[in-house]
């Protein structure tokens, strides 16, 4: 049962930090201020909290909480944060999993407070979570697609990131956001455009650790371009 103290902190969190602040307010009602500072000390902290909230939505999509998915979240946090920070975020995530909240409200707050490159990175990591058990479930795709809509991610951007994880004959073209019928010149233009859009420097404000995760998207663009060049015998 939620205590009066948790209700108070939840209300204040919502007032000062939107729905995500409300979620954290309930969690931190019984925690120390030091833990709260670990969560709110930087843009990277905001990114991580937003990611954990969306992680929970995707994990619950198929009605199962798999160990492989939880291990993915723990591994992601440990790779990208200090030992102390990752421990705090892991505990926070375990509490987030116990809560229910409005996806649309949370995403609207993220959309207003986070720039486009950061939101694209959120989408990339969400697909990574979905693929962590070796299968991307249709219900998880549906949830991620809904999240993309709320985050104001365009259809082409969504399909580009999705194609990194779900392969078909046109995946390379989808990653570059073009049709298979595109001219050689259009392919080269698309590659340059996507290389800029997905460049890790776009999320430099989230910290060097998050930049490293963005390198996977950037590599996928290069791999897609090289595959198209191979198919077309381009130089």
Output the keywords.
12 helices, 235 residues, disordered N terminus, mainly alpha, 0% strand
Instruction: Report mean pLDDT, rounded to a whole number.
Output: 82
Q: Give the structural class.
A: mainly alpha
Unreliable residue stretches: 1-16
The shape is elongated
Helix content: over 70%
C-alpha Rg (nearest Å): 19 Å
- Beta percentage is under 5%
Number of strands: 0
Count of discrete alpha- or pi-helical segments spanning 4 or more residues:
12
Largest beta-sheet details: none
The end-to-end span amounts to 64 Å
Helix and strand run:
HHHHHHHHHHHH
Please describe what this structure looks like.
This protein is mainly alpha-helical. It is 73% helix and 0% strand. It has twelve helices and no strands. The chain has helices at 4-27, 33-40, 43-60, 67-80, 83-96, 103-113, 116-130, 138-150, 155-165, 171-175, 184-197, 208-232. Helix 3 (43-60) packs antiparallel against helix 8 and helix 4 packs antiparallel against helix 5. The longest helix has 25 residues, at 208-232. The chain is elongated and about 60 Å long. The chain starts with a helix and ends with a helix. 38% of the residues are buried. Residues 1-16 have low confidence and may be disordered.
């Amino acid at each position: 049962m939620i205590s009066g103290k948790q209700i108070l902190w939840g209300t204040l969190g919502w007032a000062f930090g939107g729905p995500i602040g409300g979620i954290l307010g309930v969690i931190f009602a019984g925690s120390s201020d030091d833990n709260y500072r670990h969560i709110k000390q930087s843009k990277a902290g905001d990114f991580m909290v937003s990611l954990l909230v969306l992680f929970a939505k995707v994990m619950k999509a198929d009605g199962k909480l798999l160990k492989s998915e939880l291990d993915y979240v723990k591994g992601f946090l440990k790779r990208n944060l200090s030992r102390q920070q990752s421990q705090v975020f892991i505990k926070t995530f375990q509490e987030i999993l116990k809560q229910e909240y409005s996806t649309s409200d949370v995403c609207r707050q993220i959309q207003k407070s986070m720039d486009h490159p950061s939101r694209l990175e959120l989408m990339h990591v969400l697909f990574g979570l979905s693929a962590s058990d070796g299968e991307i479930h249709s219900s998880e795709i549906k949830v991620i697609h809904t999240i993309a809509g709320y985050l104001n991610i365009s259809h082409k951007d969504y399909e580009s990131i999705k194609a990194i994880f779900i392969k078909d004959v046109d995946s390379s073209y989808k990653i570059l956001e073009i049709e298979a019928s595109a001219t050689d010149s259009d392919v080269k233009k698309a590659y340059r455009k996507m290389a800029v859009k997905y460049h890790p420097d776009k999320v430099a404000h989230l910290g060097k650790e998050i930049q490293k995760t963005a390198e996977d998207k950037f590599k996928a663009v290069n791999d897609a371009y090289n595959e198209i060049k191979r198919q077309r015998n381009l130089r």
